[in-house]
Amino acid sequence: QVQLVESGGGLVQPGGSLRLSCAASGSIFRLATGWYRQGPGKQRELVATITSGGDTNYADSVKGRFTISRDNAKNTVYLQMNSLKPEDAAVYYCNMIKYGLNYWGQGTQVTVSS
Length: 114
Hints:
Blueprint (H helix, E strand, L loop, with lengths): L3 E4 L2 E3 L5 E7 L7 E7 L6 E6 L5 E3 L7 E6 L4 E6 L8 E9 L2 E4 L3 E5 L2
Parallel strand pairs: 2-11
Antiparallel strand pairs: 1-3, 3-8, 4-5, 4-9, 5-6, 7-8, 9-10, 9-11
């Protein structure tokens, strides 16, 4: 079983930056990981993923602004978010897949407002 704890959310002005972290309870060395988000009244959507080999994939809406990365030694995945827009406001969730099972964190709120 994998436990995930997200942190780093908060209130930021449009154009600002935040860095989200997702700490896993065990090794993430061979795990595919990702970030998803769910805005008010919306379905959960993919933001970015990173494979165990470091290959990344991004939603079109965040390409060029967000960067996903991982530190296997710290069992942590990061999401650097720059040039934030009001439409980026959502609860952000960390996801990892282990032995075919999906694991989710509790989410961290990101609010983008002036």
